[in-house]
Write the structure tokens for this entry.
Amino acid sequence: MANTWKLELGIPIDSLIVLYAGKFEEIKCPSIIIDLAKKLSGYPVHFILAGNGPLESNLKLKASVSNQITFIDFQNQQQMPVLYRLADFFILTSASETWGLGINEAMACGTGIIARNTCGCVVDLVEDGVNGFVFDAVDINGLINNIQLLLEDKLEWSKMGKKSEEKIASYSFKAIVKSI
């Protein structure tokens, strides 16, 4: 189903797909993704921004110069697992995030993670270079370098996704009961 959706959206099958799913508001900093797309122009990477919000028209205007960005509307909870599986990586760009539940959800779907160091869960859930990357918004070039390295090794995409799925499995009720 995810591959079908990818084709329907017109995303090249061999592209690295990076998903942002959330509100389009200042605190979430989705404009970072537009900047990434501009700096990675010509590379086989595609960004999907799923959601709605006050910044939507401005983001779409800024993104109109890139064919590497696709916008889709907010998706209900039943559709989110398919959306996460459509992506190779889920990106969380928030300037402040107490936890970042989208990371848990993406990991449960076997998706690699790219998270800003201002998201509470990165300390517990993201192992830099293992199941994804942690970035600092003042060092976007470091994030771009990490994405470029990923583009050189497509096998690494699925390895990171599998590591995410393995790591999040220990955050289940079954694991909690066993540890008690």
